[in-house]
Structure formats: C-alpha cells, structure tokens
Specification:
about 140 residues; mainly alpha; about 90% helix; elongated
C-alpha cells in the first residue's frame, strides 16, 4: 500500500465528515467542500491502487521474462534433439543440400523472369531505332 492510497482514503473520509457536518449545521459551503474532498480522496485512493498494481507487474516482469527465455531455450534444445534424431550425424550435409536446392530454384526463377522481359526490351530498342531524330536548323 502506498502513500496515495492512505492519504486518498483519509481525504475521502474527511470529505464525508465535512459533508455530514454541513448537513447538520445547514452550511451549503461546508457540504460542497465535503463533496469535493470526498471525490478528490476517492480519485487519489484509486490512483494509489493503480500504482500498486503497476508496481506488482513491474516487480514480477523479470521473473516472467526469465521464464519465457528458459522455455525458449528448452524448446530450442528439444528441436535440436529432434533434428539430430531425424538426420543423425549428416545434419550439415542436409543443410548444404538444402542451400544448393534453394540457390538452384532462385537461379531458375531469375532466368525465367529475365526471359519474360527480354522480348519487351528488344521491342523497345527496335522502336527507338525507327523513330528519327529531327534536327532543327537555324536559318
């Protein structure tokens, strides 16, 4: 419990007392001051509660993050073990083979895209040669 909760609760209680006293003696001014203090105290008390909750979350965060990191490491180890079980000692060989296959697919796609744009480029060059350049002569 922080200071805002304590002071807010006290101010709220004081405001209730002021309001009741204003009711008893018939003072609207005292009643109004009591309501203001009561509301301000409730707000301050609520603010103190929020601060406490945030403080607890912040205090618990390092433990939560550490737990997530530990779980990630555990899953990484299990994944590594599963890969080793499936591939045995040839993991590097499979990795190199996969990289070569991906390179070949990339080269194939690049060659296909270049072949598709080649006729379009050829037509642009032919069209550029056909349009004569007009030279302006002064005179």
């Amino acid at each position: 419990m922080n200071e805002d909760r304590i002071v807010g609760a006290g101010r709220e209680l004081l405001g209730k007392g002021e309001r009741k006293l204003g009711d008893v003696i018939g003072s609207e001014s005292l009643q109004g001051d009591g309501v203001v203090d009561q509301v301000a105290g409730a707000v301050q008390h609520g603010y103190g509660k929020v601060r406490d909750v945030i403080s607890e979350v912040v205090d618990d965060a390092p433990g939560t993050v550490a737990g997530v990191i530990d779980r990630g490491r555990e899953l990484g180890r299990k994944g590594d073990e599963a890969i080793r079980d499936r591939m045995g000692d040839n993991g590097l060989l499979y990795l190199i083979g996969g990289a070569i296959a991906l390179f070949a697919i990339g080269a194939f796609v690049l060659a296909r895209s270049s072949a598709a744009t080649a006729p379009e480029l050829k037509m642009r060059r032919v069209a550029a040669k056909r349009t004569p350049t007009t030279a302006k002569s002064n005179g």
